[in-house]
Amino acid sequence: MTDTAAPTELSPDDAAAFRQRCVDFMETHAPQSAPSFEDQKAFLAAAAGAGLAGVPYSEEYGGGGLTLAHEKIWREVKSNYPMVDSEFIISHGMCLPMLNEYGTNDQKDRFMADMISGKTLWCQMFSEPGAGSDVASLQTKADLDGDEWVINGQKVWTTLAHKSDYGLVVARTDPEQVKHAGISMFILDMGAPGVEIRPIHQIDGGSHFNEVFFSDVRIPKDWLVGELNSGWKLATAMLMYERVAIGGAGAGKINQPQYKMLLKAAKESGKLDDPVVRDQLMEIYSMETTKSLVAMKTRDELKAGKTPGPGGSLGKLYGSVIAWRVREIALEIAGPGSVAWDPDDATGGERQRIVLNSFQSGIAGGTDEIQRNIIGDRVLGLPRDISVDRGVPFRELKVGTQTD
To answer: How high is the pLDDT of residue 7?
Structure first.
């Protein structure tokens, strides 16, 4: 953020005036139903024109030039409407703050305004077939050739790569260093020669994730983000932003979307008066309320204008726990109707897609096991697991698919 994003508080009159400005905008521009990708781009373009996209970012780079107090009000107002920019969670919740915090002035000037306005969509490329939870084992490499970096390798589980214009990718730049060193982060044009994107077909019929292959992909030398070989530090920071984005979705207020979904299913199945079902509904209501409070606390801590810390793993992990429990309850309430739907259903199988996609909640953004390790180590201060590769150059490790 810029100096305009300092952790100042608004006067009651200023807060009320800005809130009304946000409400007026949403009443005019928010879609009445689940928006398409093009609807979301149009919404963000309008929001940028009104100074309400990228609220706390510098006006110089296309933001609103306001404070994080304004941003909190904007999120609260937006949460009262159908999610209007869901496809941009990674682009705005992860890539944008990383570029703002670690990018050069030239990088910010070139990319941030289009990112904020939704003109371009960005993705994050970390995981590989042999480096999932252990991202530091990545083998995608970047070699400097004159004024260009040449990237070769493969990424997997890349969300929205097929729709993205650009991405942030981590690659190994010095295999002689230990595996957590010798890694760098780069900006990559997803349409560049040598980039191949293959959709991964999901259980719900969609293709949200992708495999991405790099074959001698060339990018400008100055598309390096941050310092050379500091990629692990940046990757860790980006993962913290990711966990806040996932665990803090809808963090503008206390809400219970999964409870409401299950309540509707209970009414439709005639089981609302069943005391066991009612107990299950209140269990989810309580869990979602708690998650909202944790997310709101995490968002408030971001008012310091710093990269989020390991506490972001709390909301992310709890969201996964809720998703797994919701799936169990949904199956008890609605049976097979929780995972299958009529293609002619006007709702498009919204509830069923939520249940089916609950399986990914314990993987995306870091597995539940990784979140528990982070919480134990960095939040609770428990002893770390024994590391057998400490001090060993990456080239000498037998990790992932590395055999030579």
So the answer is: 46
Query: Parallel, antiparallel, or unpaired: how do β-strands 209-220 and 195-200 relate?
Result: antiparallel
State which residues of the chain have pLDDT below 50: 2-7, 251
The string of DSSP codes covering 251-319 is TTS---HHHHHHHHHHHHHT-TT-HHHHHHHHHHHHHHHHHHHHHHHHHHHGGG-S---TTHHHHHHHH
pLDDT value at residue 102 = 96
Pairing of strands 141-145, 183-189: unpaired
The verdict on whether 242 is a catalytic residue reads yes
Q: Exposure string (b/e) for 219-241, b if CB count within 10 Å is 16 or more?
A: beeebbbbeeebbbbbbebbbbb
- Would you state the pLDDT for residue 281? 95
User: Of 59, 242, 268, 332, which residue is the catalytic one?
Assistant: 242
CATH of 123-229, one of 2.40.110.10, 1.10.3720.10, 3.20.20.70, 1.10.600.10: 2.40.110.10
* Structural domain boundaries in the chain: 3-84, 123-229, 248-366
For residue 17, the model assigns a pLDDT of 97
Tokens matching residue 188: 């990559």
The dihedral built from the CA positions of residue 313, 315, 317 and 319, taken in this order, carries a sign that is: negative
Predicted local distance difference test score (pLDDT) of residue 363: 81
Q: What is the pLDDT of residue 125?
A: 96
69 CB burial (10 A radius; 0-12, 13-18, 19+) = buried
pTM: 0.83
